[in-house]
From TrEMBL:
Catalytic activity: (S)-4-amino-5-oxopentanoate = 5-aminolevulinate
Record carries keyword Cytoplasm: yes
Main subcellular location of this protein, as a coarse class: cytoplasm
Species this protein is from: Effusibacillus dendaii
Gene name in the database record: hemL1
Subunit organization: Homodimer.
Name of the protein described by the UniProt record: Glutamate-1-semialdehyde 2,1-aminomutase
Residue positions, PTM N6-(pyridoxal phosphate)lysine: K268
EC number: 5.4.3.8
Pathways per UniProt: Porphyrin-containing compound metabolism; protoporphyrin-IX biosynthesis; 5-aminolevulinate from L-glutamyl-tRNA(Glu): step 2/2
PROSITE patterns recorded: AA_TRANSFER_CLASS_3 (PS00600)
Cross-referenced SUPFAM superfamilies: PLP-dependent transferases
Localization per Swiss-Prot or TrEMBL: Cytoplasm
Pfam families: Aminotran_3
Amino acid sequence: MNFQNSVHYYQEALQYIVGGVNSPSRSFKAVGGGAPVFMERGKGAYFWDVDGNRYIDYLAAYGPLIHGHGHPHIAKAIGRAAENGLLYGTPTKLEIDFAKMLRSAIPSLEKIRFVNSGTEAVMTTIRVARAFTKRNKIIKFAGCYHGHSDLVLVAAGSGPSTLGIPDSAGIPQSIANEVITVPFNDLGGLAEALQHWGHETAAVLVEPIVGNFGMVPPEPGFLQGVNELTHRYGALVIYDEVITAFRFHYGGAQDLLNVYPDMTALGKIIGGGLPIGAYGGRQEIMEQVAPLGPAYQAGTMAGNPASISAGIACLELLQEAGVYDRMDQLGRMLEEGLLATAKRYGHPVVINRIKGALTLYFGRTEPVRNYDDAQSTDGEQFGRFFKLMLEEGICLAPSKYEAWFVSTAHTEEDIQYTIQAADRAFAKLADQ
Ligand code: PMP
């Protein structure tokens, strides 16, 4: 495969854009370096780069593209919004329609607010929780990523840990001091943290199913324990469902797992590919938010008609019967095929899979249950595998900490082709 145009554009991008990328996770730093592939267009499960190479896409733009690229129903909705004038700076009926849709799917969102990114959504849940409880500290789980606002860039998972920056520069120690991190799936650790700081803690923030050190499910009883312990100290439970909402079923991970938080942050899929975030929760908590209450949050682009229209269209498509079962089946087929071929060539690997989302970890055969486990896996081997798969026309995320996402656009043939490509990649890996 020839990547010469990507190499050229990368050199040019480096002259204008810091690091050549507008989000560090797009760089190939964590997979041995080199020019990232510059994509040009996408359709369904495929996208094409600037050298004309076609890839089966499992990156899904880090999650939002659950229907693949350029779905006509979503494209039409965005086109209509553009023709009607993109932005008014006033409320619209669309926002009510979407808020209703989200609340009926995720009933814990008694009141909601739209913002523009997952970062904003999580950042604001924390502010509101602090306003409501009149406390400052938050507890988060090591390796969980919650966007790039100051408070949550501590032991922050995928992007930062991939690049080896556990705590970002530019964040005052005084802010980091307000954050306590405990290992995921460790109720004992949480109980201990709460014993020390429970009465100063505004909220415990958690990805109910982790997506940021690979896909890691909560162990049975973990989330129930988080609720029980947190509420015992009068703190709030915030679920970061930026990756998980509408990923595994029509609703949040909370509905799938039957455990409910006080507040939830959303993003990615609910924007159908356009920028969006949302947060919501119990009415009395949300009433802290301006103009009703003293916690301020605002946005020129918040609730913009294009993002809302794309989100509605995306969710409409997810209401069709059988879509989630199909992604689950394709996910299972992919998992079984990848494991069988890895075994054939003697590679020690393990796959954590939740329905249509999975992570293939190298150098480990036991499931990954926390960040330490994920860190102990073999990133160099993953990097080599990533590049071999790219050469085969399969695009994964360039980090051992990310997920492969199956979309509604993938077919059994795509999965079969991917397994055959993985077979060739594993064979070459064994020879290296
Ligand atoms: N929370 C989680 C769980 C995420 O995975 C991400 C992004 N990967 C964010 C928050 C931040 O979202 P955004 O990139 O839209 O700001």
